[in-house]
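pls read this stuff:
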Amino acid sequence: MFIFGQAWKTLCRHPLRSLLIVLVSAAIAMWSTFGGAVLQENHKARTETLDKQSNTAVIRPSSQLLETRQGDDSSWTEHYLSWSDYDKLASAGQTQGVQYKYTVAESVPVRESKSVQAITTSKTSDASADKTGGNLTLQSFYTAEAAQANEYGPYEVVEGKGLDYQNSLAQNVLVSEALAKKNNLKVGSTITIGNPTDAKKTHEYTVVGIYRYTGNPDNAQGDDAKFAKDNRDNVLYTTYTTFAVNGFDTTKGKGWSIPDLNVVFTFQNRSDIDKFAAALKADLPKGFMVSSPTITHYMQSIEALGTLAGTTRIIMIVLWICGALALLGLVLLAALPRSNEIGMGMLAGLSKGRLAWQFMLETFMPTLVGLAVGLVLGACTANPLAGALGAQHDVHATGGLVWQVIWIGVLCSVALAIVAGLRVTFFRTIRLFESPYISNSADSED
């Protein structure tokens, strides 16, 4: 207890130095905990969580081909793939022994009515519905898996409920928040839309849910769309069954009434997607490409997390180096100028071992306090701090990470304490008997 008391008195006699050791230790521990949590979550997101994503692939026009599309020229529907086209491509994929399941998404432009008016801007073309097929788009999905591969981007229902893919009699749609706000639509509202090539044919739907996009694919357009039907907020979502019952799934359509068929393939693992794409290469129509929207959407969702992880890693390295140098400097500053104190202690009967233990405690106590404070702050603020830094992803410090920071921090504290203790160990006992007067007199005689 005597040694502990002496160490505590020394720390209290130098409050600024002691406080600096605590603050530097806390900063290192906090950022190590936070940074470690970010790096762990980023690694998990790109391995374990990525492997759990749906391995889907679609055959869609490339960006270059889409640039040639004119929303008021229905001849562009000649680029649409038919069922016979997909049969040929699917057969080519099977030659490589790739196993897959498939589902369907299909869409057509539809005409607006008084009950639902499309969102437009000053950039929106004023071409008539007879030219464009309508200012809205009716997008259907056969299953929830097809919805996950939505080319307009992933979405979530924020009001009401989602689509019921098992109900063949339902006449339901989902509308975007922006479209609902413009038309004062609520869950339960009824809207009417018209056939793309026959204005006299109309269909009535009930709004069962209001959605919000959670991702933004590269080819998805918003208010910058030239044609209102291409603004993804003007898309109405329904089931494939409802779409077909109302006559939109037709092989006899002309112009914009020809449905844009999108077959979504699902594979057991991501490597099969590459095999499938390679098998289709020779038969793939010009301007089309195989891509995985679910994987693309997911990778876009963790892009911000990856950026934060890269920045955090750099800061951690810099902080470790600068922090280690700062702590080492503070420890040496506390230990080196104390020759007289060491000598007086030894004359008073204290051994080098007890004095070294006192010096070690003077380092050990503030560094451990800083470690504890930083660890708690880092663990408790990991998620809110990551959110504030734009991670767009939940980040939490796991128990394994916390224990890792603890034992590494304790080892570093012990190492610094040993450095302080070595100051006593290397003190030369002979200095207790040296006299500056004898030295000075000898020099004067010379």
